[in-house]
Amino acid sequence: MAERYTLGHIAFDAYNDDRGGVNFRGEKTPPWQELTPEIRGAWEASAIATGKALAGKTRPLPLYRCKECGRKWLSVLSLLAIHDGGSRCPQCGAENEGA
Ligand SMILES: [Zn+2]
Questions:
Q1: CA 61 to CA 53: how far, in whole Å?
Q2: How far apart are CA 45 and CA 25, in angstroms?
Q3: How much distance in Å is there from the Cα of 46 to the middle of ligand 1?
Q4: From ligand 1's centre to the CA of 67, what distance in Å?
Q5: Partners of 73 in the β-ladder
Q6: In this structure, how many other beta carbons lie within 10 angstroms of the beta carbon of residue 53?
Q7: What is the whole-number distance in angstroms between the Cα of residue 64 and the centre of ligand 1?
Q8: Is the pTM of this model over 0.70?
Q9: 34 φ, ψ to 5°?
Q10: pLDDT tens, position by position, 2-53
């Protein structure tokens, strides 16, 4: 199955593109899949805050909420109002129903 990107993952990739793949200490950053669940969750929280700023108060964001751990995130497809039939939680990896 092709991996479904979350906005947190896209933000992380953009950070690495901009920083040349190194963190603030100059050390090579690990791939998204090797980040701890807590750090992936923090990237999702960052993406949600950006999404809220973009959407303003005009419409609700299509947030996912994990049935297992409660983490919230945005999927790219759901943000574009394309039903994607579910999304994998970036924190615990559980499959969830579509938003
Ligand atoms: Zn979860």
A1: 10
A2: 23
A3: 17
A4: 7
A5: 64
A6: 8
A7: 10
A8: no
A9: -100, 0
A10: 456 888 999 999 999 999 999 999 999 999 999 999 999 999 999 888 887 7
